[in-house]
Amino acid sequence: MSTNRERTDTASPGETVARWADSLSPVEAEEVELSEAVGRVLAVPLVADRDSPPLDVSAMDGYAVRWEDLQNRPAVLPVIGEARIGQPPLELAPHSAIRIVTGAPVPKGADTVLRREWVREHGTHIEVPAELGVSRGQDIRFQGENISAGQTVVPEGTLVTAPILGACAGFGHSRVRVFRRVRVALLVTGNELVAVDDTVQPWQLHDSNSWSLRGLLSMVPFLELRLLQHIPDDLDQMVAALTGALDQVDLVLMTGGVSMGDTDFVRPALEKIGATIVFHKLPIRPGKPLLGAMCHDRPVMGLPGNPVSVLVTACRFAGMVLRRLGGISRWQPRPTLVEVNDPEVSNPTLWLYRPVRLVEQAVAEFLPTRGSGDLVSAARSDGFVEIPPNTVGTGLRHYFPWSLL
Ligand SMILES: Nc1nc2c(c(=O)[nH]1)N[C@H]1C(S)=C(S)[C@@H](COP(=O)(O)OP(=O)(O)OC[C@H]3O[C@@H](n4cnc5c(N)ncnc54)[C@H](O)[C@@H]3O)O[C@H]1N2
Ligand code: MOO
To answer: Coiled-coil region(s) at which residues (predicted)?
Structure first.
């Protein structure tokens, strides 16, 4: 009997979720102060307000000269002035030099800068040695050589990094249009769960999934965890919690209760409130019962409750949905390749996700693991690799760190 009876196409699990993510729209945009912009996602391109550099400037401390005045060497040129940083350009008369500092505007008429260590300095004049090789334009940063006014520095959909924040300031943008933060609800299901600071009986578990997910979510600067709720395995309570959450957020993440047990109420609860199930059960291990649904126009993801399944499905699949909602244009994963030495023959039908530790650049080793309940092996790992069906032996695999970004 097929264990994947609901799957009708041959798309890989990554493609199935990517298609869904692609069908979603990013959240609305808002304008924020530059001081609030790092880690947010640009909703408009960052455009240069003027040329960069805005005029020709010196790249070195030295002397601004005319290249043609250097043609008979040794050349002796009187120093007729000093070009300072933050002051408008001076004018260079023929057969003379102007002392200049790094970043100062190149005087009108000058086309070359001589570094001071290349010439003999005599206070009122400089001597340019015969043996010096200088090209026209030497050590000048030309107006607009980085970018011209009106051109795009980075497109919309880019996460604002430190250099982008700097570029915003450099181009005079004191306020930035970004996508508003993605609002997320985390609904953790299970009667067996107790809080981390509660007494735990042998048949109970401390809720670790909400903490694993909070760890991942807290590293995403463009989201806001609006709601975190523990729900018992009860259909009515799950319906009520889901309905409440959907009113407040852009994405609902649920853990547990999504498999075949009689008390696995995630799917029945979603169906009861009119959700469309986009997929349920993907050919992956761990995390096979993963569920994606649309409810009240909002995506809901049911992550299988086992602790490693939650982490893997969040990083590999929920991350795509989150990045898409957040407005990131390159929301598809961009995993690096690592070499692994796989002692096993992989599964003929399932995509496997195995915790690994990076041992050197682009090389990873598998950690012993007892499967999807083994949070210890995940805690000792740096991330995981994806092993497609029927992939055997040593080779390059896609590596995903424990991250939603
Ligand atoms: N008959 C079948 N049974 C199961 C199948 C199947 O295909 N047929 N799939 C298995 C797979 S694979 C997974 S994964 C699990 C996922 O099931 P659920 O999403 O319904 O998860 P639960 O049953 O609620 O929990 C599974 C496991 O994880 C522990 N858990 C749950 N939540 C937390 C939490 N917040 N913190 C720590 N630990 C948690 C829970 O106690 C269970 O031990 O289903 C298999 N069964
Ligand atoms: O897919 Mo489950 O996560 O194997 O235990």
So the answer is: none
Q: For 326-375, how does the pLDDT look when each residue is reduced to its tens digit (9 = 90+)? A: 999 999 999 999 999 876 767 889 999 999 999 998 999 999 889 899 99
C-beta of 306 in contact with ligand 1 (< 6 A): yes
The listed CATH number (3.55.40.20, 3.30.870.10, 3.40.50.300, 3.40.980.10) that belongs to domain 3-27+181-325: 3.40.980.10
State phi, psi for 204 to the nearest 5 degrees.
Answer: -115, 170
Domain 336-401 of CATH type 3.40.50.970: no
Residue 255 CB less than 6 A away from ligand 2: no
- Alpha carbon 76 to its chain centroid, in Å, reads 55
User: Ligand 2 pocket, 288 CB below 6 A?
Assistant: yes
List, as one string, the DSSP characters of 377-400.
HHHT-SEEEEE-TT-BSSEEEEEE
Give the pLDDT confidence score for residue 1 in this predicted structure.
34
Separation of alpha carbons 270 and 278, rounded Å: 12
pLDDT > 90? residue 10: no
Rounded CA-CA distance 316/241 in Å is 26
Fold of 57-141: Molybdopterin biosynthesis moeA protein; domain 3 (2.170.190)
pLDDT digits (tens, 9 = 90+) for 388-405: 998 877 889 999 999 999
Tell me the best of 212, 260, 306 to mutate to test the pocket of ligand 2, counting ligand atoms within 8 Å of each CB and taking the most. Answer: 306
